[in-house]
Amino acid sequence: MKNRVVITGMGVITPVGNNVREFWESLVEGKGGIGKITKFDASDYPVRIAAEVKGFDAEVYIDMKSIRKMDLFTQYAVAASIQAVEDSGIDFENEDTERIGVIVGSGIGGMATFENQHRNLINKGPKRISPFFVPMMITDIASGHISILYGLKGPNYAVASACATASHAIGDAFRIIQREEADVMIAGGAEAVVSPMGIGGFASMKALSTRNDEPEKASRPFDEKRDGFIVGEGAGIVMLESLEHAQKRGAKIYCEVSGVGFTADAYHLTAPDPEGDGAYRAMKNAILCAGMKPEQVDYINAHGTSTEYNDKIETLAIKRLFNQRAFDISISSIKSMIGHLLGAAGGVEFIATVLTIVNSIIPPTINYEFPDKDCDLDYTPNVARKRNVNVALNNGFGFGGHNACILLRKLNVV
Q1: What is the rounded CA–CA span in Å between residue 284 and residue 270?
Q2: C-beta neighbour count of 285 within 10 angstroms
Q3: Annotated catalytic residue within 340, 375, 402, 405
Q4: Comparing C-alpha atoms, which of 184, 282, 302, 158 is closest to residue 238?
Q5: pLDDT-derived band of residue 338, with 50, 70 and 90 as boundaries?
Q6: Annotated catalytic, 340?
Q7: Which of 145, 163, 245, 405 is catalytic?
């Protein structure tokens, strides 16, 4: 008998709110967080817009000495983890910390740190490279900081699978608890690549929207006029527990994680399989893992990047799996509001999916103005909608053909 796994705590740092309450209120209101880049001078770049985190004060969570040893992505991860731990109400002093672990990933890691230290190397020589350069840059370091902060000695590592990173991290944590290798796991992702190389690299790929003069309308998943995604930043971290452990300590429970599906396209480095095969199998496998049927799914939090091929192919995969019922499922992409948080996307969007179930409200896909004949499902255009959601899927797909889907449900759904 496998352990059942539930969500007991959540924390976010996002372009539309630096805690769960602000984040959810912004989503329901259809409030966007995309604007002109302020972190560096982007005037010579073809892309001058991004979804930046606003008003983040690391000192609320971390002492200044430690901040100096952390890249911004790690600061975001630690802050969101502290929120999740506090939200869960857990007291680690009363727990067996050898059975509590951390899996927090990043698609890219400390890119800004790499840029800064490379600048030191070129301008000042190798002796001016910081001794903290490597531990600030590497993607696993966020998990390390979180485990050290709380003294957690269970499974501890990072996942890096591009834009599927946080989804894989949460899925791995789910499986670890299922297998009784841990009682509690902190999991999710963090990213901070609104930097010259980050924006420049994605812009060179022609992956980003160049709607520089109206940034608030630049991210438009499933809309015919979409022209690329928007780089976002932040973190989404959750506390997962076995149902038995959560009930024993009297924890509040948001909902249940019941299934995961991990697949590969094995097709192209950056483009999705044209038949949507990997996405189709990831969703199918998540449903099978949960012991459920496609007709039980009420809502899909889509990957929905606002790129030509992702949105078209994700739609195709949904229709292939659900057939005619695909038209009755509510779908939305919150990337229309928060941009694409890359390695953090799956964590933040997982939390949005949890809140959709808890609050019986579907967050909208904003900027949906021009229907696309290839994207003809119900994307909850522009305005949030009341709907009872018992079962939901959360999709995450990454460069390299990595696909991850997680199935969530209300705790008492049979």
Answers
A1: 22
A2: 18
A3: 340
A4: 184
A5: very high
A6: yes
A7: 163
Q: Which member of 145, 168, 245, 303 is catalytic?
A: 303
Residue type, 358: V
Structure tokens, 212: 């520089």
Q: Convert the pLDDT of each residue in 11-31 to its tens digit.
A: 999 999 999 999 999 999 999
Residues 6+ apart with CB under 8 A from 130: 117, 120, 136
For 380, list phi and psi in degrees, rounded to 5: 55, 65
CB atoms closer than 10 angstroms to residue 257: 28
Per-residue DSSP letter, 267:
S
Cα separation, 127 vs 321, in Å, equals 57
Question: Which two structure tokens, joined as six digits, stand for 176?
Answer: 């670890």
Any idea which residue has 């109206």 for tokens? Answer: 214
- Beta strand extents in 96-154 (DSSP E only): 100-105
How far is Cα 166 from Cα 105, in angstroms, rounded to an integer? Answer: 6
Cβ-based neighbour number of residue 63 at 10 Å: 9
Inter-residue long-range contacts of 52-55, CB under 8 Å, 24+ positions, other chains counted: 52/15, 52/194, 52/232, 52/233, 53/13, 53/14, 53/15, 53/18, 53/233, 53/234, 54/15, 54/18, 55/18
Give the residue carrying structure tokens 């790129």. Answer: 307
The predicted-structure confidence for 177-215, as pLDDT tens digits, reads as follows 999 999 999 999 999 999 999 999 999 999 999 999 999
Which residues contact residue 255 at a Cβ distance below 8 angstroms, ignoring those fewer than 6 apart? 6, 7, 354, 357, 358, 408, 409, 410, 411
Reply yes or no on whether the pLDDT at 315 is more than 80: yes
Would you call 163 a catalytic residue per the annotation? yes
